[in-house]
Specification:
Layout: E1 9-13, E2 22-26, H1 40-43, H2 59-64, E3 73-80, E4 83-92, H3 96-110, E5 114-125, H4 127-142, E6 146-150, H5 154-162, E7 170-172, H6 175-190
Parallel strand pairs: 4-5, 5-6, 6-7
Antiparallel strand pairs: 1-2, 3-4
Helix pairs in contact: 3-4
Amino acid sequence: MAKMSRLPKFVRLGTPAAAGTRFSKIYQIFMVPKPGEFRLSINMQTIDRNWQTWDEPGMQAAASAYKESKLKLSLETRNRGEVLIVHCQGRIVYRDEAAAMSRVAGEILKQGSKMVLDLSGVTSMDSAGIGELALLQTWAHERRAEFKVAGANETIRELLNLTNLDSIIEVHPTLDEALETFREDRVCADC
C-alpha cells in the first residue's frame, strides 16, 4: 500500500529554460491510488452462471400465509358517563401507530372533554409515542380538557418516569382509579 507523504512537494512553474523559474508548494492531502494489482476490479472473480435458484411461492402458498396488518395498534373509544376512554392495544411506535393514536385522541380533545388513555394493552412504546403523549397533554391544556393516562405496564411507567412525563401527565395504575379521580373532581366542585 502506498503511503502518503506529509512533506510538501515542490513543483516548478513555467518552462525549464525560463530564467527566474519559480517553485510552488503542493501539499498532498489524499492518498496515492493503489497500484492496479491491488485494486478490487482486477481481483474480482467471474460470475458462476450455474447458481441455484428456488421456485417462487405459488398463489396457493401466498393465500394461506398469515398477513400481518400494517397498523400494529388498535384503538377503541368507549364512553363512561362524560369521560371518553381510548383503549390502546398493540404498540405505539414511530409513524402510523403514534400518528393514529394522536389523531383519535386529538379529535376527542378538540371538544374540550374528559379523556383517559388506557395503555393496559400497549406492549411497547418508543420516542414517537412519548412525543405524542406530550403533544396530547399540550392540546388538552390549551383546550382546558382533562387528559389522564391509565394502566401502563411497568416498562412504559418506567419510560414515563425517565422522561419526566409523569410529572406533567396524570398517570394512574388502573383505569378504574383514573375514572374515580373524575368522580372526586365532580364531588368537590359541588361543595
